[in-house]
Specification:
It contains four helices and two strands; from the N terminus they run ααααββ. The chain has 177 residues and is mainly alpha-helical. It is elongated.
């Protein structure tokens, strides 16, 4: 077990921001650009002519700028955490934080943009509510899975540089991440 689990907050904060930014990139790249299911304002301003397409592209660009900024801040926080020897490293904690951030992004963005503001839907048209609910459920699963991994990481993290105990040539759980 880590000497002081509170020190994991630096890694968790960085991971949540990185997960938020990377989850936003998955949304923007996959749903906006590759599949072209929607744009930021496609329910309010359908991209049916060049002007509407340009306005949607501008708002998609603002969305990507936001996700880039969140990702950059997450990298900065991770860099700072890496310089602190009291911060324990745990793959479970970090991956859980990434998942938590991505899931939180999906839930917040899905509730605000898809449900409350209605500025776009995951896949407009027939069954759009099912797609929106699926997006929210996927986000909720990522949050729950991320939270569980973070908790598991608390039990399996160790301060950097701590020796790994071995029994019969196998790494003990305290040394695994």
């Amino acid at each position: 077990m880590a000497d002081n689990p509170r020190h994991q907050g630096a890694v968790i904060s960085a991971g949540v921001l990185l997960g938020t930014g990377l989850g936003g990139f998955v949304d923007g790249i996959l749903l906006h650009q590759l599949l072209q299911w929607h744009n930021m304002l496609s329910s309010r301003l359908p991209p049916t002519d060049l002007v509407a397409m340009k306005v949607n592209m501008f708002w998609d660009g603002l969305f990507h700028a936001f996700t880039w900024l969140v990702t950059a801040i997450g990298i900065g926080l991770l860099w700072r955490a890496g310089k602190r020897p009291e911060v324990p490293w745990s793959t479970r904690t970090f991956v859980g934080s990434l998942s938590l951030g991505w899931g939180a992004f999906n839930v917040v963005e899905g509730l605000i943009d898809h449900q409350w503001l209605g500025i776009h839907h995951v896949h407009p048209g027939a069954n759009q509510l099912a797609w929106d609910v699926g997006f929210l459920l996927f986000g909720a699963l990522l949050v729950v899975g991320g939270w569980a991994l973070i908790r598991a990481g608390r039990e399996h993290s160790r301060p950097r540089g701590a020796p790994v105990r071995r029994v019969a040539g196998e790494r003990l759980a305290a040394g695994r991440t």
